[in-house]
Amino acid sequence: MSIDISQFLVTFYEESFEGLEIMESELLNLDVGAADNETINTIFRAAHSIKGGSGTFGLNAVSDFTHVMETLLDEMRDGRRQVTQEGVNILLSSVDVLREMLTALRDSAELNVQRVAATKQQLDTLLGGDAVSSEEKPQAEQAPVESSFQLWAIDFRPHLDMLRTGNDPVRMFRELSDLGELNATVDVSGLPAWDELEPEESYLNWKLALDSDKDEADIREVFEWVDDECDLNIHQAAGLFVEAQHEEAAPVQPLATPPIQDKTDTVAAVGTNAGSAKEPARKPTASGDTSIRVSIDKVDELINMVGELVITQSMLSQYGEAEKIDTAGIERLRDGLGQLERNTRELQESVMRIRMLPISFAFQRFPRLVHDLSSKLEKNIQLKMSGEQTELDKTVMEKIGDPLVHLVRNSLDHGIEKPDVRREKGKPEQGTVHLNAFHQGGNIVIEIIDDGAGLNKDKIIEKAVGRGLLVEGEAVSDEQVHDLIFHAGFSTADTVSDVSGRGVGMDVVRKNIRSLGGTVEVTSKVDIGSTFTIRLPLTLAILDGQLVKVGTETYIVPLISIIESLQVKMDKVNTVSGKGEVYRLRDEYIPVVRLYHVFDVEPDGRELTTGLLVVVEAEGEKVALFVDDLFGQQQVVIKSLETNFKKVGGVSGATILGDGTVALILDVKGLMGLYQKQTPARDLYLVKSSDAAA
Amino acid sequence: MAETNQTLEVGDMMSASDEGQQYLTFILAGEEYGVDILRVQEIKGWDSVTHIPNTPEYVRGVINIRGTIVPIIDMRIRFDIEQLAYGPTTVVIVLRVQGENGDRIMGVVVDGVSDVYNMSDEDIKDAPDFGSAVDTKFVKGLATVNEKMVIILDIDHMLNSQELNEVDSVVE
After folding, report:
1. Does A659 touch chain B (CB under 8 A)?
2. A99-128: b or e for each residue (b if 16 or more CB lie within 10 Å)?
3. Do residue A650 and residue B49 have CB atoms under 8 angstroms apart?
4. Are residues A556 and A678 located together in one domain of the fold?
5. Would you give the DSSP letter of residue A412?
6. What CATH number is associated with residue A656?
7. End-to-end CA distance of chain A
8. Contact at 8 Å (CB) between A291 and A14?
9. Which of A144, A434, A579, A581 is the most buried (most CB within 10 A)?
């Protein structure tokens, strides 16, 4: 077939993964014993489309596997089989295996074949085995033969109306010839007299001899689309046939009518560049192309807005063309400009909304997680979710997934107690983990609430003292205690399980969330439960920035990293060994970073008193940036410098200001790195703010 | 508006003939250099740029071209030719550079745009080896047009490898 189907592979994978997610969530909804037929149907449909798709793309391992699942589901649907917990569990692990298979295929990665085989075995056993496995076995036995070339005899008799469905035998032959050496002989006995001939009907039958190392399934695949429109007989030709075919070939071929002869010729010609073309087509592009599904409403909304924008533009240009603009004209122009501004803003908002997805995409993996973990931990846990429709940026969503999983695991493992413990405490045996999401200001807030044991303050303090994070007897507030759990290597679990308790994680969670420009906090009451609250910006594409001026340059400091800005009092400036400047702010010594020095630009003034200090913080360290002046604060759209250039130290990106010029957005952490490199190391021992404060 | 007009002209000339390849030439210190015209995105007048800290001197900075941040390279500094104050004929040629990580858009500052020539591959002769005296790494070849010599540049090579390496080393 001349169409390169590999281009649809990406879509296939995407849809399959979606299908797997549907299967997973529906399987979890399945009530054992009293299964809802509609639910099973949904699962069945998802499995069926994966099977169909993988068959089309020749991913036979996947389609075979799905076929077995489908058989099982079919029996469940027809009521021939009880929906058992065992069945559901096997189906769930089949979903996992399928996901692994598809991921491996997509990334051309190694696949854990044993696991696939084991799961398939389980499925087969559940199905009563023999019926299916006997169907599979002959194929397995053929496997050793497959590797060598062998002759296939294909008897291909299209029905009269095959051509009407848009299927062209020549294309199929061409594809066959990619599989190996192809010899085609045509049987024209079906041809009617010339005046009875319908050009759109196919009267010809073919006998094909294919010398190929491919197996029957590969050959059948070629005829996949015409399955119902022809009689097809494929069998392995015995050695005898080879002889016969050689004898036969010569006399039969001349029988073909001239145009058909041409066709066979082309087929034979193509046959010479055998085989190899097929393989690369199957290899998926490993490129990180991601796509997004946008509801048609959002697109329509956009189109409407663009339409309005065009109208406003033409209105404005009409006003602008007037030969003389009087006061009324100016008034009209102003109105038009106002309208333009409104349109632009709306347009921007709806374009941003395209990137927004409901958080349910991140939430949907949790039913499975809770289901699996609660049986593993022998706990009875119910998962509640609310606010799933809250939207946030796709990029943020992708990055928040892992931290969320970690926090939920934590709640399941450490938070919720075992049923007997809960009973003793007078709580219902079933614990609840509640995932909640909502918008607040320009942020999305995600809460993970459990009704478990809560954080054990004494235990945390004890551990903290043990690790030297706290001094014994030191008075600490609840917040400080709760903050301790985010320290690296901190765990209050008595035993390390494979679920959690290794103490890696919470610090990573906080780091990841901070890298997204968000925060995470925890509140907790003993025996009532804990609440983790994550606050994230809705999008990574827009940032609240403070514009600062150094000489002729304007830079943008992310507002979130600014602690305060202040005028310099010279008596608070000290130097360390005459070079490293520090500023005493309350009880801290903060290193002063002269931005003009780091970035090598000509400032308005080199005296600290002529400018301002902007105190910024990144990952717990503070520095004071010396700038000439502060401009306003504004939301800026983040543009990548890397698209056309390269990552630049101390700069996280760029943006375009109102006048069309480019301004660089500062990367506070990177700046500190640059500064430390520029300052000789010996000056730094006192400059570290934490040391200075002690 | 001037900018759009110029872009249009380039487009017209492209369709005007299909013999060989077309090269846009520009002047740099009296010498004429040519680049594959299909790589030229647009030609615009020199405008102020935003300086990027800690980059080689020939990276003048970045500008905004319809929402894309585009780095600007000064060819005089790049080729180590004496600098000249930017004047009214100073232009920025915006080029599409093919690299390992896909296409990138970059602008080069030159003294002025000269002409568009048709040239086939046979017209372009290999550049002689000047030894260490002249760096011919970025030169694809030399061609003669109307008894004048045109230096055909390999922009992918010129604006990629070393460019990135040098910038990289600043970041590390």
Report:
1. no
2. bbbbebbbeeeeeeeeebeebbebbbebbe
3. no
4. yes
5. I
6. 2.40.50.180
7. 74
8. yes
9. A581
Residue B135: per-residue pLDDT:
67
Confidence of residue B116 (pLDDT cuts 50, 70, 90): very high
Same domain, A345 and A431: no
Last residue of a domain, one of A510, A537, A564: A537
For the domain that residue A485 is a member of, what is the CATH number?
3.30.565.10
Does any domain span residue A62?
A: yes
pLDDT tens digits for range A600-618: 888 888 888 888 999 998 7
CA nearest A186: which of A274, A268, A269? A268
CA distances from A348 to A23, A295, A353, A584, A637 (A): 36, 17, 9, 43, 10
Tell me, what's the pLDDT at B35? 92
A384 and A529, same domain (yes or no) = yes
Chain B residues whose C-beta is within 8 A of a chain A C-beta are 48-55, 61-64, 67-71, 104-106, 164, 167-168, 170-171
B-chain CB neighbours of A548 within 8 Å are none
Both A445 and A481 in one domain: the answer is yes
Residue numbers in B near A661 (CB within 8 A): 48, 50, 64
Each residue's pLDDT tens digit, A299-322: 888 898 899 899 988 988 888 887
Of A601, A662, A664, Cβ closest to residue B64: A662
Encoding tokens for residue A132?
A: 């299916």
Residue B97 · residue B160 · CB < 8 Å: yes
Give the one of B50, B51, B70 whose C-beta lies nearest to A644's C-beta: B70
Stretch B112-132: mean pLDDT: 83
- Of all residues in chain A, what percent carry a pLDDT higher than 90? 6
Whether residue A418 is contained in a domain is answered as: yes
In whole angstroms, how far apart are CA A581 and each of A387, A576, A628, B139? Answer: 50, 6, 17, 49
Query: With an 8 Å Cβ cutoff, are B53 and A648 in contact?
Result: yes
State the nearest Cα–Cα gap between A661 and chain B, in angstroms. Answer: 6
Q: In terms of CA atoms, which chain A residue is nearest residue B96?
A: A644
The CATH number given to whatever domain includes residue A162 is: 3.30.70
Angle among Cα A242, A243, A248 to the nearest 5 degrees reads 95
- Chain A 199-258, CB below 8 Å of chain B: which residues? none
Q: Which residue has the higher pLDDT, A197 or B46?
A: B46
- Which of the pair, B162 or A365, is modelled with greater confidence? A365
Q: Which domain holds residue A31?
A: 5-142
Q: Does A641 touch chain B (CB under 8 A)?
A: yes
User: What does pTM read for this prediction?
Assistant: 0.53
Q: Are residues A241 and A214 part of one domain?
A: yes
Domain count, chain B: 1
Report the CATH number at residue B18: 2.40.50.180
More confident residue, A82 or A652: A652
Residues of B in contact with A651 (CB under 8 A): 52-53
Give the structural domain span for B63.
2-171
Q: Are strands B21-28 and B31-36 parallel, antiparallel or unpaired?
A: antiparallel
Task: Grade residue A169 by pLDDT with cuts at 50, 70 and 90.
Answer: confident
Chain B residues within 8 A of A660 when measuring between CB atoms: 64
A411-435 residue pLDDT tens: 888 888 888 888 888 888 888 899 9
Q: Do B62 and A646 touch (CB under 8 A)?
A: no
